[in-house]
Amino acid sequence: MPRERVGRHSHYNLNYHLVFTPKFRRRVLVGEVAALVEAEVRAACEARDWLVLALEVMPDHLHLFVSCPPKWAPSDMAKILKGVTARAALKAFPQLRARGHFWTNAFYAGTAGDVSGETVKRYIEAQRARQVDDAKGVQVPPLPHQEASGAAR
Fold first, then answer.
1. pLDDT value at position 152?
2. 56 bridge partner residues
3. Hey, which residues are catalytic here?
4. Closest CA to 121 of 151, 91, 153
C-alpha cells in the first residue's frame, strides 16, 4: 500500500474502500461478466491515475480499495466506475438489460489510511506547541484551550 503519493500541487494518501451491488443484489458478477467488470474497473482507474490497491468481484457485489488524487470525490468515483462498467456489461451481455439497471443507486464508501482519527487529532493539536515563528525564531505559545487540556506538552 502506498504511504504517500505526490501530485503537482499536493502530497496525499487518500485511500477509499468502495462497494457496489447489482440491482436487486442479483448474482450476475460471475464468469465472463465478472472478468469484464474487473477489466473495465482497472482500465477506468488507470486512465484517471487511481491506483487499485485491491479489487474483488463477488457474485453479488464488488469491493474496490483504491488510492486517488484529492481532486476526486468518492461519489464521483462511484458514478464513473458504475457508469463505465454498466455500459460495457450491458453492451456485451444484452440479456442483462432485460431486468433493468445493472447497479443499484447506492454504494458504500469508507476511508482508510495509515493512522487513526485520534492520532491525526493529536498530531494537529501538537503542531501549535512545536510552531516556531520563522521571522523571529521564537516559539509560539500554545492557545488557551490547549493549555487547559494539557495538549501542548
1. 45
2. 63
3. 123
4. 151
27: left (phi over 0), alpha (psi -120 to 50) or beta: beta
Counting residues of the chain whose pLDDT is more than 90, the rounded percentage is: 54
The answer to whether 4 touches 11, Cβ cutoff 8 Å, is yes
**Cα(20)–Cα(38) distance, rounded to whole angstroms?**
12
At 96-116, the pLDDT tens digits run 998 789 999 999 998 876 666
Set of cell numbers at residue 19:
462497494
Instruction: Specify burial of residue 144 (Cβ count, 10 A radius: 0-12, 13-18, 19+).
Output: exposed
pLDDT of residue 10: 87
pTM over 0.85: no
What residues form DSSP beta bridges with 67? 15, 51
Q: C-alpha cell of 55?
A: 479489487
